[in-house]
Amino acid sequence: MTSFRIFLLAGLGSVGIVTTAYFWIYGSEKESWIISGGESGGNYDAVAQVIAKSLEKTKGWKVKTLESSGSGGNLRKLREGKVDLCLVQHDFPGDANVRTLATLYEEALHLVIRDGNLSLTDLADKKISLGSSGGGTEALAKATLNHLGIFEGENTWMNEGLKEGLANLRSGKTDVVCVVTGIGNPLLGKALAEGDLKLLPLGEEPAAGLAFSYPFVEEVTIPAAAYSVGPGKGVPAKSLPSVGVKVILACSKTLPENDALELVTTLFENQASLAKAEALMARMAEPKEDLALQFPTHEGARQHYQRDAPTFLQNWSEPMAFVISILAIAWGLGVTLREFIAQRHKDRLDDYFKQVDALTTELVEGANKKRCLEISQELHAIRRETIDKLVTEKLDSDDFFVIFQRQLHTAQQLVSEQTRQQPSRRRTTRKAKS
Asked: Considering Cα of 274, then 279, then 282, then 286, what sign does the dihedral take?
């Protein structure tokens, strides 16, 4: 086998290895997703449903939505690998494996009360609902209440879902229900529309001082009449300053960059239709570097936000480095294969060397004319056989073959010399006898 064929086979093999390894590592486009939202009928659930339907329609992906208790449940599912995407308040405690794909909208703290005359100074001995245990409301509500001088030991704090909390508020089992949600939450709006519940003001600029102890908080205003309670009527009667946090679309850092990039690009390309289906999606935006987000932006999403798109080399640096590595390995394998095949050829020539050496030894020790002719024919047959194998590339024309040809030529010269000397020896013998 020639060197060209060896390296051709090694090259073809490397192409196959590179192709297989590339698709194994980088994979094809992800087409199946699971997204975790929130309680049925709430904002998290509504947003998750809208995202799922949009991706199914525009990309043809299969997207499944799951209900949950909120941010805590969503992060737990993400950590356990049960979901690919989830909605999370960016102030909620997470871990280093969580990444931000986009900020979706802002949530505000609502303090819902039954008694319209209740004020912040009256909360010291009241029963306060903080939402589900480990949910997104609990952390922000506790931080805000503590900042306002309302502590757990002075009242009763309870953990319950929004539906249960509102039911207990109406029945008198609870005095205040804390809700961190997007303005216009349908569940909250329905409860306020019945006319017996109000929103408790938090005072002027409640986020200004809180930001020093709770860095993720933002100033939020609940607009006047944000919740309709009848013809020409709305709650609150006038705009209420409040505190709020961002809701993000989160994923695991293990989500491949190309999948994250395709997902984020698709969402922003279809933001108009998303906003028509759910008004909150009109606020979807790039995670800002100056925003105190505890979850870093996913690298794939960052590529979308960088309008100066990455260069070809930036996009393909890792695959190219991988390909070069594989080619280097393939070259090494080719060289090794060539040496191996050369060694096999050498072993085959050893057989011919042994034959020629045996015949040469026989000539040196002395052979009659008849035997010399037989040896000549055997040497000729060896030459013809080795030349044929060289032509058909069963032997290499390397240095080892050249040495063999020289030894063969020497043996043939020795045969010729022996043949010429045989008659003169017989004539000399006859003359001696006469």
From this structure: negative
Q: Which residues of the chain have pLDDT under 50?
A: 425-434
Global model pTM greater than 0.70: no
* pLDDT tens digits along 85-130: 999 998 888 888 999 999 999 999 999 999 778 889 888 889 999 9
Question: What is the SS3 assignment for the chain?
Answer: CCHHHHHHHHHHHHHHHHHHHHHHHHCCCCCEEEEECCCCCCHHHHHHHHHHHHHHHHHCCEEEEECCCCHHHHHHHHHCCCCCEEEEECCCCCCCCEEEEEEEEEEEEEEEECCCCCCHHHCCCCEEECCCCCCHHHHHHHHHHHHCCCCHHHCEEECCCHHHHHHHHHHCCCCEEEEEEECCCHHHHHHHHCCCCEECCCCCCHHHHHCCCCCCCEEEEECCCCEEEECCEEECCCCEEEEEEEEEEEEECCCCHHHHHHHHHHHHHCHHHHHHHCHHHHHCECCCCCCCCCCCECHHHHHHHCCCCCCHHHHHHHHHHHHHHHHHHHHHHHHHHHHHHHHHHHHHHHHHHHHHHHHHHHHHHCCCHHHHHHHHHHHHHHHHHHHHHHHCCCCCCCHHHHHHHHHHHHHHHHHHHHHHHHHHHHHHHHHHHC
Give domain 31-310's CATH number out of 3.30.1330.10, 3.40.50.300, 3.20.20.210, 3.40.190.10: 3.40.190.10
Q: 210 near 143, Cβ under 8 Å?
A: yes
Residues in the chain: 434
Domain boundaries, the chain: 31-310, 317-433
